[in-house]
Amino acid sequence: MKKLSVILIVTLMFGISTFAAATEDYSSTINLFKGSSIPAKFFKTAYGYAVFPTIGKAGFVFGGSYGVGQVYRGGKVTGKSSVVKGSIGFQAGGKAFSEIIFFKDKKAYNEFISGNFEFDATVQAIAVTVGAEVQGGTTGVSVGASAGPESDVQAKAQYYKGTVTFVHSLGGLMYELSIGGQKFTYEAL
Q1: Which tops the pLDDT comparison, 123 or 13?
Q2: Which residue range(s) make up the domain with 135?
Q3: Is the pLDDT of residue 25 over 90?
C-alpha cells in the first residue's frame, strides 16, 4: 500500500510539473508577483531572483514536489533551475503553486547558484485558490496568503539570510504539517 501511495504521489507531482513546464510563461508569473504590492518592492532592490511558474506538490504521509524555473540578475536570465522537495508528516492532497525567491545581495545569489540552497520545515494549508502558508528554514522565511488571483492579502516579509520567498497558490487541495528537505539545481545559460 505504501509503495502504491508513493508511486501515485510521484506520478501526480511530476505530471503536474512536466505539463506546466511545457507551457510556462515566465513573464506572466513575474508580472503576477510585480502586481502584488509586497513582492513588487523586492524587484526594485534585489540583486537577483529565481522564478518557478508552476511547482506541483502531492502527498499522503510521504510527499514530494517538483518544478522548473529560471534565475535572473539585472532583469536578464542567467540560468535554469529546478526544485525537488521531499517531506514526511501529516499531509494529504495535491496542489500547484508559483514561487519566487529574491536574493538580497551577490552572496545570497552565489549561494543559490552554487547548489547550497536547501532544507526547510513547512506548516501550511492550501484549499483551491484560498490558502495560507508559513515556511521557515535555511532557505529563509516565506509567508503568504491567497484569497484568489486578484487578492493582495500577504503578510509582511523581509530577508532572512539573504533571501525572501513568495508563493502564489494556483489551485489544489492539500493539508500539511511536515518536515522535509528541498534542493535546487542551477545550470548557467
Answers
A1: 13
A2: 2-184
A3: no
Helix axes 26-34, 37-45, angle to 10 degrees: 110
pLDDT band at 113 (very low <50, low <70, confident <90, very high): very high
Q: Which 3 state secondary structure label does DSSP give 25?
A: coil
Residue 23: Cβ-neighbour burial (10 angstroms; 0-12, 13-18, 19+): exposed
Run of H or E including 34: helix 26-34
Choice between 187 and 165, residue whose per-residue pLDDT is larger:
187
In order of 26, 90, 94, the CA distances from 153 in angstroms are: 22, 26, 22
Residue 189 resides in a domain: no
Identify whether 121 is part of a domain: yes
Report which DSSP code applies to 155: -
Residue burial 142-171, b: 16+ Cβ < 10 Å; e: rest = bbbbbeeeeeeebeebebbebbbbbbbbbe
Enumerate residues 6+ apart whose C-beta is below 8 A from 23: none
- Give me the number of domains the chain comprises: 1
Return the residue matching grid coordinates 505504501.
Answer: 2
Residue pLDDT, tens place only, 82-109 = 999 888 888 888 888 898 999 999 999 9
User: Which of these, 84, 86, 53, lies nearest to 170 by C-alpha position?
Assistant: 53
The answer to whether 141 and 156 have CB atoms below 8 angstroms apart is no
